[in-house]
Predict the 3D structure of the following.
Amino acid sequence: MARTAPEPLGSPLPLAAAPMAGGATTPRLAAAVAEAGAFAFLAGGYKTPEALAAEIAEVRRTGAAFGVNLFAPGTTEIDDADLRRYARELQPEAERYGLDLSQATPVHDDDQWADKLDLLLADPVPVVSVTFGLPRPAEVAALRRAGSQVLVTVTTVEEAQAAADVGADALVVQGSSAGGHSGTHDPLRPITETPTAELTRGVVATTGLPVIAAGGVDGPRAVAELLAAGASAVAVGTLLLRTDESGASRTHKDALADPQFPDTVITRAFTGRPARSLRNRFADRYSATGPAGYPAVHHLTRALRQAAAAAGDPHGLHLWAGTGFRSATTGPARAVVDRLAEFL
């Protein structure tokens, strides 16, 4: 069935590559999915403004349709005593890789929000998406004046209405089955099961804004279901993790197909913010005691997780994965886009 280009993305297919911060999303991946007809998001999270600018320039040279995702500023407070308690608990994990967490103190940052915003105002991209919370109305207005459409990730109907109130052009609706960090605006809120199609219908009915639906996309039938629920486009992340163009570590890629990891769990253990990961030793041991405290816990465990990836130890690594992870395949990203487009 022929379709017009979905708004606000404007790509030939109503499909988008979700921004996967931490290295999985690369300019090469963005270019590949755009060449296949989907829209690509670069992940601005955890990068310096200079590194993000370089990636923008690289993708722009390919002529790809793309946008940039930023983390909204905001922290979940954690006191020194709680962080030190968790550091002591994690020390046996750290010792596997020759690390010492005994001097841990809370590190708070806003992921250089203001500098990245300045970058995108000076060198606009077609779409800017924001996750983890709301930008200020004045920031939304400034991005729109610069020529960017502004999207906000939401996980409830209430968050969707709040995003509409600050002037968002469209919404990224993230169901609970999505992999990686939840975009919830309240990281202390328990993440309850919320099917993406159901949430999409509620958000569309409440706000009337265009919706890009994300979470639980394991094949073309899921895409068709979400479009039928009212989404203008569907975002996919986990299915792209094992592709040739993905920057995910070999340890992460292999774990997605490893039968010792049969399911996923939502946990704060890795970063202090709820996120869906393959259920491994780290998640099993520390999910019950891992404190809320983002980004302080992220900074505490970062070197440990990097060492686990380098050592090829999938049990010490944040193996972000949505519930459809078993459908992730190796090969070119184009093949994933082509398969998802089968029912369009």
Summary: The chain has two domains: 1-75+110-245+327-344, 76-109+257-320.
